[in-house]
Amino acid sequence: MSTRAISDTGVLLGRSMRHITRSLDTIITVTIMPIAFLLLFRYVFGGAIQANTDNYVNYLMPGVLLIAIASGISYTSFRLFNDMRSGIFERFHSMPIARSAVLWGHALTSLVSNAISVVVIIGVGLLIGFRSSAGVLPWLAVIGILALFTLALTWIAVIAGLKASSIDGASAFAYPIIFLPFISSAFVPTGTMPGPVRAFAENQPVTAIVNSIRALLDQQPVGGDVWVALGWCAAILVVAYGFAMAAYRRKIA
């Protein structure tokens, strides 16, 4: 990305962030559902679930954070669809700005807004018993994984925002993604699941990501899970980015 494109992206990021700060209900809406799941599993289902851990909140936290991100990226699609419908893209294209900056502005806004949601949820987790003895480097690794996961899903959201024909369609794609953590190791060990469900759970990206984050926060060996997690995130990011840019070029052609 050229210096000019980086500068243009920064300007468009500032524009999108101003919209978010003027409408904080977006972040509130995104955090309500994950916090509800956190409280529900902690205080209602937690006593009946055998997760082989003394602190079930620690076990829950990685999956809840992924649900928050999966929920948050739907607003990227929503904002992008509104920009397309309002005709502001045409105005941007008539100005001397880098074409890619328009999409990257939305992508980085998603990264920042989801980071805020993650911090809020971790804060709630601390209030109800979440604890981590991890040092600075493991936490940086967790932040890196969450950021890569967010960017990967964000570019899927960009595709939905560019291709959707209605506001409902622009955000509906997120529902299957939000559901994925429930068929993973996010809430219960995969060993407790029936055969076919277990096979799916152990070979989908969320399980490797959850296991990696959980191990890092508990200062346990991450093993090969972290490489599987990074591989999934990187592959989704590259493929989604390619399809998003192709869809964008068709839109502005």
UniProtKB/TrEMBL annotation:
Transmembrane segments: 24-45, 57-81, 102-130, 136-160, 172-190, 226-248
InterPro entries reported in the protein's UniProt record: ABC2_TM, ABC2_TM_bact-type, ABC_2_transport, Nod_factor_ABC_transporter
Molecular function terms from GO: ABC-type transporter activity
Entry's Gene Ontology cellular component terms: ATP-binding cassette (ABC) transporter complex
Keywords: Antibiotic resistance, Cell membrane, Membrane, Transmembrane, Transmembrane helix, Transport
Main location: membrane
Localization of this protein: Cell membrane; Membrane
Pfam families for this protein: ABC2_membrane
GO biological process, one term: response to antibiotic
Residue ranges annotated for the ABC transmembrane type-2 domain, each copy included: 25-251
Lineage top rank: taxon: Bacteria
Topology of this chain in the membrane: Multi-pass membrane protein
Family indicated by similarity: Belongs to the ABC-2 integral membrane protein family.
Protein name: Transport permease protein
